[in-house]
Amino acid sequence: MTLRYALLAMLTPLPAAAQTLPEAQRGTIVAGIDKRAPQLESAARTIWGWSEVGYQEAKSSALLQGQLKAAGFTVKPGVAGMPTAFVASFKQGSGPVIGILAEYDALPGLAQSAVPSRAAIDNKAAGHGCGHNLFGAASIAAAVAIKEWMVANKVQGELRVYGSPAEEGGSGKVYLVRAGLFDDVSAVLHWHPADANGVFTGKSMANISGKFRFHGTSAHAAASPEKGRSALDGVEVMDVAVNFLREHIPSSTRIHNVITAGGEAPNVVPDFAESYYYVRNTDPEIVKDVWARVTRASEGAAMATGTRVEQEVTGGVYSMLASRTLAKVMAANLTQVGGENWTPEEIAWATAMQKNLPTQPPLDSVKRTDLADRGPDGGGSTDVSDISWTTPTIGLNTATWVPGTPAHSWQAVAASGMSIGFKGAVVAAKTIALTAADLFLSPQTLAAAKAELDAARGPGFRYAALLGDRQPALTYRKPTPAFEGKAAR
């Protein structure tokens, strides 16, 4: 998840919520997760080692599915056209349907050892810079604990785990929503690694992402440049046009890009080049408008350079519409679980890591759980947001990284592969499990959350995915071969 997880300047606690779960049962659930902590750590460490990127998480998905099957869940793999997605279910009679999200994709270009200094890993390209190895492992641990509690106490209802691939730019959950897999769900719970503990109730940014592929004519760059039409020129002219566009869009909008292909040799006029763009704003309508203008910039660049451009939207997500009704329940449980307690060895590791960070908040801030409201707006995007517009949804952050660590960094990768990360994941698993149990026993809370969502969306709301009706972009993390463009001419 690409939300901003640094400590925010203005944080206000949520009011406490009544807890419906008997104290003895709460203790049993917490003890059950403590018992499973070694399995959680083993799964998180293994997925961290694999570091599979979006839609290529075959081993990671299979590992989590296997744990759920062994625990008595019915697992349906390959849902919504995504081979690495799954839905696992445990049902006992009729009652509420509570969903828990699990992610497991890594980020390209962030391979890093679990040490407090920059140390890339040979022959490895990706790393868990957003901690999704922890995310998936902890969610499964929570789900197994809830299932055992349901059996022991004859609790009626259905518990589902949604294996969600390609959160990082692939919009995997959008396809789950579009397929109607949340239509009958009463509430959805999620969490995310961070550098502090808190329940997130602010907005994330809606976004549209996609690739612009320019096709030109190759030629000898010195002997016959007049015969060439540079696809790279198209990419660069588009970049210039978009940079001028920035002055004339709402100031809260973000546009960023990378050139993913630009030629192989300076003495060859490249006949294929590709740029990968993101447009973000908390308002989905602004995102759609700015994306249309970026697209027109690409068309103008192609015209100016005598090239041809093709566009593929690879992702698109809404802004977050978090449930404050559910947040009160989750915040109360996070407070009861408490923050992380590090050993002297972990404190020494974190102290060494902070030397590589631009800010150094107090290390003992990881013990705090009173930072309940993470501020009005996030600085990134997540496909959880689309779920939040269709089903009451709430999530928390736990301190799996050293305070001051930004997401999508090698520092986050390092902590996600060692004990600091695993301890934060256990806090998340306990909080999610207790919150789910409370909700199974509180139809009034679920009804209030549904009423809150209906009011927030407004009358007549109909969900429509920002990425349209395209099928999942299963190859979005793979390079686009130049010859594919030639064959399409």
From TrEMBL:
Residue stretches of biased makeup (Basic and acidic residues): 365-376
Chain ranges of the Peptidase M20 dimerisation domain: 208-297
Signal among keywords: yes
InterPro entries in UniProt: Amidohydrolase, Aminobenzoyl-glu_utiliz_pB, Bact_exopeptidase_dim_dom, Peptidase_M20, Peptidase_M20/M20A_hydrolases, Peptidase_M20_dimer
SUPFAM superfamilies: Bacterial exopeptidase dimerisation domain, Zn-dependent exopeptidases
The UniProt record lists the keyword Signal: yes
A GO BP annotation: folic acid catabolic process
GO molecular function: dipeptidase activity; para-aminobenzoyl-glutamate hydrolase activity
Cellular component aspect of the GO annotation: cytoplasm
Sequence segments annotated as region (Disordered): 358-388
Gene3D superfamilies the record matches: 3.30.70.360, Zn peptidases
Signal sequence residues: 1-18
Alphabetic keyword roster: Hydrolase, Signal
Name of a matching Pfam family: Peptidase_M20
PANTHER family per the UniProt record, alphabetical: PEPTIDASE M20, XAA-ARG DIPEPTIDASE
NCBIfam families assigned to the protein according to its UniProt record, in alphabetical order: amidohydrolases
Protein name: Amidohydrolase
Organism annotation: Sphingomonas aracearum
